[in-house]
Structures are given as C-alpha cells and as structure tokens.
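Much of what follows relies on a compact textual record of a protein's fold. Think of the row as the fold of the chain written in a discrete alphabet. An example makes this concrete, so a full record is given next.


***
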Amino acid sequence: MTPGHVHPGPAGGPGLLFAAAALLAVVAYLSAAARLRRRGDAWPWRRDASFAAGGAVLALAFPLTLPGGPFTAHALHHLLTGMAAPLLLVLARPLTLVLRALPPGRGRRGLLAVAHSRPAALLVLPPVAALLDFGGLWLIHRTPLFAATQHRPLLHAAVQVHVVVAGLLFAFAVCGLDPVRRGGGGFAVRGAALLTGGTAHAVLAKGLYADGPPGTAFSPADLHAGARLMYYGGDLIELALALVLAVQWYASAGRAQARRGRLRPAHGPAAGDGAKG
C-alpha cells in the first residue's frame, strides 16, 4: 500500500507552471477590464476582485505545501482548486468580458461560434457537468488511481488539471452567467444537478471517513480530518452556488411579473364609454 505521503499539488515544475498560468489569466482579465473602462464601458470592480481572488487561490494552492496531514492537505487542495477557485472565476463572467473586449472581427465571431456550438452546449449541460466533476472525484478516490498518482508525476498533473477544469464546467453550468448555447439548462435542471452533485460529494466524503482511497495508508486521525473538511467545506461552496442560483431565479421571476404587468390590459370603461344623458 502507498504510505500516507501525498503532494496536494503537482510538485516542482508542473506546480509552478500552473501557478504561472493562473497569474497570467488574472493579468489578462484585468487588462481586458481596464480596456473596457478606458473606452467608457462599465464593468463592475467586484468582478475584477472575484477573478483575481480565484486566480490567487490557484496560484498559491498548486506550488505550496498546504497545512495538515497528507490527506487533510489533499482535501483542502481539492476544495480550493476544484470548488472555491472555479466559483470565484465563474462569478467574474470571463467569457462575457472577452466578448466585450474583443473588437468586431474574425476572433470575436470565432469565439461566439464556439460558445454557441453543440459541444459547448453539451459540456455545460448541468447533468453532464455534474457527472464529469463528481463522477471524476469518485473515480479518483474509489479506484487505485489516487495511489497511482503518487508515483507518476504526469498522471498527477493530469488529474489536477481535470479537477480544475471539471470544477469550472460545473460552476459555469450551475451559475449560467456567461452567454453560451444552452439546451435544457433551466433553473430546475441546474438546481437538480447541484443537489445531485452535492449529495454525491457528501456521500464520498462520508465514505472516505471510514475507508481511505484504495492502495493508501493514511492515519485514522488524518483521514477523519480530511473527510470532515471535504464534507463541510463542500457544503459551504455548494450553498454559495445555490445562493447564486436563487438570486437569478428571483430576478427572473421579478422580470416576468413586470412583463405581465405591462401587457395586462387596463381595467375599467373604455375611452368614450361615458354615461349617456
């Protein structure tokens, strides 16, 4: 069995490359936002702060050794890179920013074509995104894959990339903030995917409390602490996703009610229908 020895993020070169990529993404985002403001367009500063925070989480989590025992550090790394950072990045609406910052032309048309394509619609379909995200977590933690990553740096790096990308897709699908082609991704479907994914995450965390990933040998105290962190930390981030969804539903219901009010015919006698004398 693999001893309790885990590098939460890709050690050495891969971790530094991931951190550098995250920082470059933040610089590109802030530059695009500044470009919008220079030409007089509005772009909320809170979105800059959200994207910068998400990028900073990724930049720090990958190369640094996180606190706690090996499995606790792994659970913290999962929460940061696979759940918290993706939510922060998605709340900043990066695709909307890029589309607004790009000048009219081939680049903007190409990006719109990709965003409105069938493959993009499939990837951000909430049930598909939930399967890729939480199904991947089950595959990592309930097969020998987790133990194998400890001896194969490239496999470890590939798994970490999957965790981040799948987390981004899930947050993107549930929040529904950026303009992409959507098929069957209404509030009910998004809410059901969030509930199902959150349940799968909680069941996985409870299972890990009793039995660690196959082929590993973590101490009971470390395993219990990591599983609790995964369980309660996941609940907090999923609650934040639910809040985003609830705010959107409330705003959509308010707009629908306002439209009905404008379209409703006025009551009372029509013009010219006065009393005849």
Summary: The first helix runs from residue 13 to 38. The two ends are 101 Å apart (CA to CA). The mean pLDDT is 88.
